[in-house]
Amino acid sequence: HVLTLPFIARADQAANPVAVKLLQLMASKQSNLCVAADVTSASQLISLAESTGPYVCVFKTHIDIVEDFSPQLIQDLLAVAQKHNFLLMEDRKFSDIGHTVSLQYSKGIHNISSWADLVTVHSVPGEGVITGLKSAVPNLQRGCFIVIEMSSAGNLTTSSYITLSTLSKWLSYECVVTASMEICEKHPDFVAGVVCQSPNIVQNPGLVQLTPGVSLDCLNDGPLGQQYHSPEDIIMSRGADIAVVGRGITQATDPIQAAQEYRAKLWAVYEKRVSS
Ligand code: 5IU
Predict the structure, then answer these.
(1) Helix/strand/coil (H, E, C) string of 180-232?
(2) How far, in Å, CA of 224 to CA of 221, rounded?
(3) Distance (Å, rounded) from C-alpha 32 to C-alpha 262?
(4) Nearest Cα residue to atom 7 of ligand 1
(5) Do residues 80 and 49 make contact, with C-beta atoms less than 8 angstroms apart?
(6) CB-CB contact of 272 with 236 (8 Å)
(7) How does strand 208-212 pair with strand 191-195?
(8) Mean pLDDT along residues 177-193
C-alpha cells in the first residue's frame, strides 16, 4: 500500500524527474516538511529560507506578494536552495487556458519556469492547463502538483457531507477527483503529485501527496477560513506525504525552533506510518 511504502522505494516508481529527486531528498534529509513562505519582502524571504532551509524538503513561495521583487532575489533564493538542499515550489495555482498559463509560467517579471522546480495548478481548466505548462519548459526538469482538494472552510472540493439530498454534489466531487487523477496519469512526465486533504486519492506510489493546513497550536484562523490539523492527523488519517506549515513557523517567536519541532514531529509520524 502506498501509505506504508518508504519514500526511497517510491522514488524508483516516480516518472517525473523532480518527484524522483524530491522523494530521494526527503529520505536522505529525513524531512517531510514544506514551509509556506508567505512573506512580503525579499529580505524576509531570504532570511526564512536561510533559517528553515536545513529542516525542509520544499520551500513554497508566493512570489507575487514580494513588494521589492528583483531578479537578484531569485539568484539569492537559488543559492540558499542549493546550500541547504531543498526544492523551490511556486504556489501559483495556474488556472487558465493552456496558452495563457504557458505565458504566465515562462514570461513576465517573475519568470517562474526559470527557477521553480515545482508549481501548483488547478485541474478545473482540464488537461490543456498541463499541456500549456509543459509546452513552456520542453528542455527543463520541472514538475507540478495538481490541486484536488483545498483546506479552506466552505471549499467546493469536499465530499465530507454526503447525504442523499447532496448526492449530486457528491457525484460531481467524485468526477473531479477521477478526472484530475486521469490528467495525472496522462502526464506522468510532468505531474509530481497532488494537493489534497484525504487519503486514498493517490494510489500511484510515484506521486507525492502535499497537504496544507497543519498547526500544533491552532484549529483555524477565524474568518479567513483556514482549517488546521495536527501532524498525526495530517500524515496518518489524511495521507499526507509532505505537510505544509506556514504561520506555525513564520509567525513563531523562534522560527528556527518551530521548524525543528515541526520537522521532528512530522517525520516521527511518517516513520510510524511506514512501520505499521
Ligand atoms: N494552501 C492552503 N490550503 C490549500 C492550498 C494551499 O493553505 O488548500 I491548495 C497554502 C496557502 C498558504 C499555506 O500558503 O498553504 C498555508 O499557510 P498557513 O499554514 O499559514 O495557514
Answers:
(1) HHHHHHHCCCCEEEEECCCCCCCCCCCCEEEEECECCCCCECHHHCCECECHH
(2) 6
(3) 9
(4) 212
(5) yes
(6) yes
(7) parallel
(8) 94
Q: Please choose, from the candidates 33, 61, 38, the residue with its C-alpha nearest in 3D space to the C-alpha of residue 261.
A: 33
Q: Which of 148, 211, 244, 245 to mutate to test the pocket of ligand 1 (most atoms within 8 A of CB)?
A: 244
Grid coordinates representing 113 are 519556469
Say if residues 191 and 130 touch (Cβ distance below 8 Å).
yes
pLDDT category of residue 129 using cuts at 50, 70 and 90: very high
Instruction: Report the alpha-carbon angle 155-158-164, nearest 5.
Output: 125
Least confident range of 10-14, 122-126, 229-233: 122-126
ipTM higher than threshold 0.95: yes
- Which residue in 67, 129, 123, 79 sits closest to 103, CA to CA? 129
Residue numbers belonging to the annotated binding site: 38, 60, 151, 226, 246-247
Residue ranges in the chain assigned as alpha helix (H): 7-11, 17-29, 42-52, 71-84, 98-106, 128-136, 167-186, 231-232, 247-250, 255-274
Residue from 274, 273, 185 nearest 231 by CA: 273
Angle, alpha carbons 188-266-234 (nearest 5°): 65
Question: 195 CB less than 6 Å from ligand 1?
Answer: yes
Cell of 59: 520551500
Binding site for substrate, by residue number, is 38, 60, 151, 226, 246-247
Task: Give the position, in ligand 1's atom list, of the atom nearest the Cα of 149.
Answer: 8
Which are the catalytic amino acids? 91, 93, 96
